[in-house]
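Dear colleague,

Thank you for sharing your sequence with our group. We've completed the structure prediction you requested, and as agreed, I am returning the results in plain text so they can be pasted directly into your records. Please verify that the sequence below matches your submission; if there's any discrepancy, let me know and we will rerun it promptly.
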Amino acid sequence: MKSSAHVLRSGLLLLLLAAQTFAQHAPECFTGAHRTLRNPYRSIDFDSTEIQNTAIQDLVCDHALAPGWYRFKLNNKPAEMPTTCVEMNHCGTQAPVWLSLKDKSLPQPGEVLQLSACATWQFFHGSTKDCCLFRIPITIRNCGDFLLYYLQPTQGCMGYCAKVAPTLAPRFCPPGEVEVNGRCKAVLPSLPSRPLISSELNGHSVHLRCSFILPSSSLPLGFHVVWARHISNSMKAEIHQESTVKPFSLVEMDGVHFRLGETFLCSVSTFQINVTHSRSSPRESEAFYAGLKFSVESLQIAENGKEHEVRVHSTVPLPCYDLNHCGVPLVLGVQNPDGLGHEVSNVALSTCQVQLRPTPCSKGTCGQASFFITAVTDFTRDGNRISLISSLPELSTSRLWRSYIPRSLKVTVQDIPTSICYSLTDPHIITLDGRHYDNYQTGTFVLYLSLARDFEVHSRQWHCGSRHHAVACSCGIAAREGNDVAIIDMCNGQRQETRPKLTVKVLGGEHGNGRHVRVLESHQGKKITIIFPSGAFVRADVGDWGMSLSVRAPSVDYGKTQGLCGTFDRNINNDIQGYEGLHDDLHAFIEHWRLAPGESLFDKTPPGSRQEERRHFCRCQKGYSSFPSDGEARNVFGPSTHSDCIAQDNVDYTSVFPSLDTTMEYVNSHEREGSILNMSSSHPLNGRAHHFNVNNDEEFRNDHLLSNARLRRQTMFKFQLASQRISQADLEHLAYFFPEDHLVKPRPGIQPRWPTPSGLTPGKALEVCHMALSNSTVGTVCRGLLGRRLEEAVNLCILDLQLKDDLSWDEAMVPYLANECERRVLENRAHRDHGVLIQPGGPGEEVTALRCPKFCNSNGKCTEFGCQCHQSFSLYDCSVTIAGQPVKLSDLENGGLCDLRTFDCRKVRVFGLGFIASDGLSCQATRLKNVNGVWIPGEKQRTKATFLSSKVLDCGVPLLSSAAVHTEDFMIDDKPYARWEISVTNDGAQYSFAKVLTIYDGICQACTASHSGICKLKDRTCNIDGMCFAEGDINPGSPCLLCDPDTSKYTWSLNQVNQPPAFHQPQDELRTFSGEDFVFQFAASDPEGSALLFQLVNGPKGAILSPAGLLIWRVPSPPEEEWLQSTFYFTLSDECNAQSTLSVQIHVVPCGCQNGGTCVTDFTFPAGSGKYLCVCPDGKQGDLCHEDVDKCLLAPCADGKCINTDGGFRCNCPEGLTGATCQEDVDECKQMPCFPGVHCLNSHGSYNCGPCPEGMQGNGRKCTVDMRPATITPTLAPGTTVHKVREVLMQNPTTLHSRIQISKIMPRAEPLGLPQAQPTTWRRDSGLSLSSVFQNHMTSHTSKNTNVITPDPVKVAPPQICTTNVMQKSGKPAAETCTSRPCFPGVQCINRRSPHVGYVCGRCPPGLHGNGRICMKSAKAASNYLSHQQTAGQRSRTPHSTSQRSEQSAPYKVTPPSLHLITHSGLVIKPRQTTRPLLNYIVSTRTKPWTSQRPARPLKGTLGALSYSLPESELPADREEAALIPTTPNQTPLLQSASSIQAWIGSRVTDEEHVVPCAGRPCFPGVQCDKALDGSFRCGRCPVGFTGDGKTCRAVCKHTCGRNMECAAPNTCLCKAGYSGSNCQLVTCEPACVNGGICVAPGVCQCPSGFHGETCQEAVCRLACENGGTCTGLQTCSCPYGFVGPRCETMVCSRHCHNGGQCVSPDECRCQPGWNGPSCESALCSPVCLNDGVCIRPNTCECPHGFYGAQCQNAICTPPCKNSGLCMRNNVCSCLKGYTGRRCEQSVCEHMCINGGRCVGPDVCDCPSGWRGKRCDKPSCEQKCLNGAECVGPNTCHCAPGWHGMLCHIPHCQQKCLYSSRCVRPNVCACRSGFSGAFCSKKLRWQAVLSQKPQEVHPLLGLFEDGLF
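Please find the predicted structure tokens below.
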């Protein structure tokens, strides 16, 4: 039974095999007779809507399908047409075509059937579907293994469908085979593991490598690799397939088939070589994504200020063109899918461009870049929004990257609430969560405290003027964020008389990274907003009574706040909370947040902290620039250089109120602490009045702060409360005395009642508040946005009227309504998305009402910058009429008295009625002069008026001219310093009545506000040089003088109490060492602050003590181990001659350095410590130079061995290295260590040899082959040119030229850097033959030849041509094949069939141009490159001589190969040198330059082989390598085939005009050229695979090439130019079609409507675009910046032109004369303002304090400069040489006057009695010292030895003169008569005396006689 079943099964198998064989006999079943449709979109499972929405051009449309036989494949599996109806929008098309069988069945193997195909269509959605609307005839052939379809083009855009075919193969396979996918295949091993895809960089091109592990098998296996890409979640499309024997497959990412942004796979199956019909089951790799990836797929962030780092990395290598252009630049962008494009971005990036830097590929990353992303704090309730972060390569990158659009990163931003806290009027506090309560207490409180960061807000409250109740109002606010502190304070003054002072501080000084705060002023300074970098702001709405406060909390503080503003967690029940929890008592809660005196930001400046540097962020949206425009209030933070981004777009700073950024007015000056806000001008750019700060006298400042003007407000308290006693020490810690901080008892409770004491009823209050608020402009327009807030404001207004009992408070809540309306507008995303904030005057009426309060009262025009008032109207809302308003003055501050020693008398506060903040508001000061006791008006000056309120303003007081300040013009007497009449005007025309201001010197004068204006002089003062001094005041020029009225009231008196200076002993004992240059600074001080003078009295030799106390001493070298001690004596005196005598001891220690070391001072220790360091000589080291240096310790010999020597070290270098430190490489390749022809590559310390030539084995140094008979056939060894040599009949040897030229042919050496050998002249030896040379060469190829030919300079006739054949050692010809990969990567290489050898290269890949060996992106560049290569040899050929040189020729130049050349005539040429040979040689003896009939062929050299490629138009099927002889520059030209060589040699041309016919290479490359007897030539047969006459040969393909193909090589069909694809079905246009154009033919684009041009690049517009616009689409213009409209006809100004300027371009204003600047905001003054003067109006300068004049050219110094000093600027004198001091009142002596001398002029000392000289250093004696004595002191003589007395006139004798004798000279006695001897001890007899001769008598004897002794 089993046997019969087996027989049946075998029979069935035979029948099926027979049918299959019969079917395969049909011609269309053979390969090449049909085409394969492989598009995976044709699958019935593919939904076409996926590509209809993204890439409609990829739809399958078979209307252009060529009629023919087709086969279907899906994912490399056999497929067939479906036989059931297919739904629309499937198979990659809209109308799918399927096969209709009706009642028929598919054909059996070998059968053919005629059937019909149906197209499915549905006319519109909901209509009936027609499965067979169209019918198309189809013929089906069953080829056994697959079905073939004869298809026709469809009638429209339809597509033939396919599905995976069922099993058609037999189910019973023969032995040795198994069934695989329905087919019998041989049992082959599969891959042991999955293939792996990686990427690599070859040159500048990116390649993908599919590598795999080879299976174990005894069969010769090949590998079939199929590349595919994902096209959907479940589908993939095949791209490329190839068969290889290598363990990898390499494909180039060309941007067409292999593109970035796609996921690739490779599957590998094995097959037996030469048996391709059977394959193993494929193994598929993991998916590989090629492109860019973000570090996260999506990101969830929140508006909490946190920064998130995002990395983008590349999975493929990045190109590196040079050192400066490595990687790929990416442009980052942000898109908001749910936005309209003009709203604030939801996220911000730290940079808008990153550079992908290449790195070695590791873990899927080949390069990466990083940036930071953060959510924008936008203060908008917009919910959770999604943004997309894109990263696009720049257009300047390569084509692969340029066409790549990476995936975007999805970022979801969680919205976090923000809120505002209010402190209004009384104040009524509205917390962040909306809870209301009242705080009637005065003092300083914590209003807001953040627990998440360094942010706190303090507020101050004072009594604000209620007539009946103790209510409070805010008068100041101070805020700190990080190191930035900003204070708005008006608490240091009187209510309704003061204005806020703004102070901006940076904690930590210059090192504190702060100053990021911004100050914005609106409504002429009545609304001040201070914005911090976090987005938080504090706002003060200023009134006469104080200010209402607003504090905005950013999202980062949500749930993390404390203070009076509550907890900010949307729970109003826990707002009344302190540090310790909830408070039940509101009063206890308020007291909990009260700050003690001196602890608030108003008084105490906290220490700075190290803040993290803020990173800059940008929106990076389309058209975005980080530089803000002039009118843009969004980005109030200026540019910075810390980052690519220069903005702070991570916070939205949008504001509706028109404001002016005045930050620079408060942060530019380091000296002033604050500035008073200016509210007096309608234009915010007008000058500011600065807060006065008394210079150099802190006591004056304290007096000013505690003056009567401040104390007056303390007495105005209606409710007198006890206060603490404040000491002067306590006041020193306060900025000013704020009495509300020092109240002991709490303020009484408030119990308001109706009606109020003035009779105000609730109804009347409701009516007033309703009219002031509900019917106000803001209340009416913003009613819908305010909601219940409007009603709450009315209730608070009623409460204010009840407490104050004053109807003037009815509009105090209007700023609150405006602030709340702005908040609601900014929170409402709908308003922002519709451009309300972008377009001025847009649909948002709320914005207009906020910009222009009360709609400018109909007295002005509303603009983007607020109200522009009509003439005669002023104020920010145009509510005040300027003309005709009377002004009345009531009083001046302090009754019109100003003490210039105590107060700032440059301005005076004026009280009155009717002051208006207008442009014409000013003051007028009239100088009063006293003439004969009568005050007469003098000069008048207009001064600046600073508006405070309608009742108070400040008037500037002119400074007196320099002529009026001189001493002679102003002497202190009973007249004041100056008197002025002050008057005020609103319009510059009508002035008020004047009030008198008296300025006096309070030290010497006591003045009262009397009509006479006369002052009284004070007692106990001095009037010196026209200046006042109080008793005890020190002379500014000398501390020895002071004001002592008891001594003199008009001159300086000596300081009688002067203490000597005090010397500060050094803390430690002073030490030094021998040889040190000892330097030490002594310190001392004087109790009176006088200058000190050091004078050395005694000390060691060489010591110098400077007058300032600097001791310099070169210490001598003492004996070893001996300690020395030196004492220095010096005096210390002050300017007033008080003196001290002192001494200091210094210990000296010897230098302990050994072995010749030198001691130097160790400056790490303080001076005088005696510490030293040793500087050691060479070879020594250690602290004391006691150790020897190990020179080998630092490994100086690199890889060599270091040996210490006496003089240093010696290096023993290993092989391959040389030099003193083994750093120099030995080039072993110069010794030719490799086998001849093998490339030698030198490396550091070694070398490497390349592979042995083809057919040889070895390590590159030694290569061996088998010896065979020397059969010479055409071949090409690697790197060797071979010629077939035939027997040549030579003429008489004597006529043969005696010189030949042998040129060594080298491959192109540029890529490898190979040198080119220089030719050498060799001499001929007779008696040798060419054949013997060949024999010698074949037997001893590698032997060195030392039989050299000496150069011979004798010139002979031109040589003839000889040829030679270069063989390998064995004589076996070597053939270059495709195994050496000679062709361009990706180009097909075809090995030639035997008997021919070599290869041919196919066409370059699509998009590249060249000959297959060399491919370039540009066709022009490729042509130029190949032409250069072809002509290079021609340009470098050695020109031959003309007829004059026919008998003489240069010696033959031969490069030195180890080679013997033998001729039949017996000529032997031996090489002279022993240089090892390279591989290519050619011999030429032509007598005339040779010209080719066709261009020379390009040559490309490789390391392993030398090949030759033809142009694509001449591509052969087989390659005759013998005909392809390359050459290089400076070498002989190319030769043709061996037959041509034979013809040349056989003819032996003697006539140099005769040309060998075959020399022109007339035959097809590879075809032999033979010379005929008649002198003509004959070409042989075309190579195999070609047909033609030998001159012209064309390739032959066995099967006809398909459509759009041509036969490019034997049996090789390639796509024609302009076509690509697996079947050349794709049309290519270069350049590509744009704007939706479709490529319908090579280089032909079909353009859509509205575009035209070769690539559809030009748009069509019926009307031309104006103003430089570009037509980008049908009737669509792309307008340049600043122009809008359908045709760009409307210009839009980006800035507001001020002062009458006109907008003439989007960014240009044409200014009126006298104005300039981008917005005409800057006035012009000619000449310019000097000394920091500000040009405020055309030709009008506003001078700073201390200067006056039309150009501020005159400076003022008060008191004036003395001694002809020049006043340079405010109170700064430039002194003449010899004078110093603030007023040049002090003389300067270059050398200090000593001995009590006084400097009275430049270098002039007034010496006291007894001294003289320039420095009073020379003593003076009134009577001359006698007998050689020296005057050494005042009237003090220093006597010579033997003299004494006051004048040294008394001699001195050591022994007493006897007998009443007298000493008349030193040791000389004058004896009396009768005595003699030295001391008159001998008595003489008178006879002896008388007997003496007269001349022998003692000469002094006469003295006695004269009675002198």
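Summary note from our side: The chain has a mean pLDDT of 75.

Kind regards,
the structure core
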